[in-house]
Amino acid sequence: MVAISRLWRSAAIGPPQPDYLNAAVLIELRTTPQALLRRCHELEHAAGRNRTREPRWGPRSIDLDLLIAPGLVVLSPDLTLPHPRLAERRFALLPACELVPAWTHPRLRRPLAALLAALDPAAQPCHPVGPWGPTGRS
Question: Looking at the domain assignment, is residue 122 inside a domain?
Answer without folding.
Answer: yes
